[in-house]
Amino acid sequence: MLLSVLFLGYLMLPGYSFPNPPPDAVQSMEGADTETSLRRGYFTDYNREQVLDYYQNQINKSSFLNLPMPTLRLNYPPEDAQTLIRDQTHSVYLQEFVHPLRESVYVNGFRYESEDGTWYKGVHYYQKIIIRFVPSGYLPRLVVGFFIMLSIALLYREAKTITKYD
Questions:
Q1: What gap in Å lies between CA 32 and CA 30, rounded to an integer?
Q2: Structure confidence at residue 62 as a pLDDT band (50, 70, 90)
Q3: pTM value?
């Protein structure tokens, strides 16, 4: 019972808003980076590890009372960026930070291999990152959570009847 209450409390925590960009990052105003409010592009001098650590630290805490949140860090092949981020997206790495049964944040990074690097409005940057935020609503979370708890209860009851006859 206590676990059910904690689980429902986790599902009812307020959702996150779009994560902040790294310090000194410049937001891209290119067409593909502004077509939806749930995807933004930034030019930055951070390297891959710095970008991923920055976003992991940002979403590891709950938006409610700064409590620690369970966060999964999933790594995808760069080719998946065209499906998960946007068609024709260039990618060197693609990672997803997931709060199970809640929201996700995709971090896609691209760095040109040439010495020219990435130029935006006459300024040189180490790489371009694209952040895609995938929020979830309360009602779907609670419905899925209810069916998970119901399934666990039914499986537990069934397991008890099976072991009774052994």
A1: 6
A2: low
A3: 0.85
